[in-house]
């Protein structure tokens, strides 16, 4: 008799989540789930609830009702720093890097448990730490610019640096908010390849509106509309869904911000 196949617990599970802002439901009875090691892209028209979705996961906003579970543990009532320590990292749309520090120092500071700027600048890095930062520099494609101040990087390079800073903190789940905004076509492609490679070791949620970028990276797409889940599927399935065409894609990709 064959043994039953092992079941995989979702890394993130959201159940009947509602967020009410003075009578406006930014999220409305939203249910969502993703598996470990998944690269999920979330799209939807302006006002669909995408930012509130991320804010709820990170504890920035508190749900009016419903619950969120990360690796089986409820996030309800936890502070932002507590959720971060559980292994959830977030990258905002605008790069948040230390402009006057070098690329290497930015990564070193992010990975340093003590989070001290002076400690990072004036201590001698351990060999294992140097090797880890070297590997991360290679992954994000910034090894040739490791000793340059971050202020001298292009917008696309700063985006990749901040993703590297996030990875340096070893989160299990990465939340990435509209990373392709303002990038050239080449930078967008490079960023997509980076996220695809990171998905081999991390679970990733990407909020995005650039449909070419979504097609490049997406394995599964979730579409939000008016705070609720409209549909999910492959990019082809989503693009051909009549509901999605009506509320989002049919309006033109430029409407989404």
Strand tally, please? 10
Q: What is the helix content?
A: 25-40%
Q: What Rg is obtained from the alpha carbons, in whole angstroms?
A: 19 Å
How do the strands of the widest beta sheet line up side by side?
Answer: 6-7-8-3-9-10
Secondary-structure class: alpha/beta
Specify the number of helices: 10
Oligomer: single chain
Largest sheet: 6 strands, mixed
Mean pLDDT: 87
3D shape: globular
How far is the N terminus from the C terminus?
Answer: 54 Å
Word description of this protein:
The structure is a single chain. By secondary structure, the protein is α/β, with parallel strands linked by helices. The protein is built from ten helices and ten strands. The chain has helices at 50-58, 80-86, 103-111, 117-122, 127-140, 155-168, 185-198, 211-217, 235-239, 242-247; strands at residues 12-21, 24-34, 39-43, 65-70, 73-74, 88-91, 173-177, 203-207, 220-225, 228-233. The protein has a six-stranded mixed β-sheet, sandwiched between helices. A four-stranded antiparallel β-sheet has the order 2-1-4-5, with helices on one face. Strand 4 and strand 5 form a beta hairpin. The chain is globular, with a radius of gyration of 19 Å.
């Amino acid at each position: 008799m064959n043994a039953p196949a092992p079941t995989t617990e979702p890394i993130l599970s959201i159940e009947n989540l509602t967020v009410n802002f003075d009578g406006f439901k930014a999220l409305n009875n939203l249910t969502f789930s993703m598996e470990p090691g998944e690269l999920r892209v979330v799209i939807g028209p302006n006002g669909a609830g995408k930012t509130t979705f991320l804010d709820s996961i990170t504890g920035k906003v508190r749900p009016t009702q419903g619950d969120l579970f990360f690796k089986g543990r409820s996030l309800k009532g936890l502070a932002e720093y507590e959720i971060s320590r559980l292994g959830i990292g977030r990258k905002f749309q605008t790069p948040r890097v230390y402009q006057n520090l070098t690329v290497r120092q930015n990564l070193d500071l992010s990975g340093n448990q003590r989070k001290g700027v002076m400690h990072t600048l004036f201590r001698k890095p351990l060999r294992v730490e140097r090797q880890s930062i070297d590997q991360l520099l290679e992954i994000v494609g910034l090894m040739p610019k490791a000793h340059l101040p971050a202020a001298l990087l292009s917008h696309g390079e700063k985006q990749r640096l901040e993703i590297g800073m996030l990875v340096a903190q070893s989160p299990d789940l990465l939340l990435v908010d509209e990373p392709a905004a303002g990038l050239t076509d080449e930078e967008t492609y490079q960023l997509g390849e980076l996220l695809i490679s990171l998905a081999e070791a991390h679970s990733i949620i990407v909020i995005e509106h650039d449909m070419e970028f979504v097609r490049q990276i997406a394995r599964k797409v979730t579409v939000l509309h008016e705070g609720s889940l409209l549909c999910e599927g492959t990019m082809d399935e989503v693009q051909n869904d009549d509901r999605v065409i009506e509320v989002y894609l049919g309006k033109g990709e430029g409407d989404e911000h």
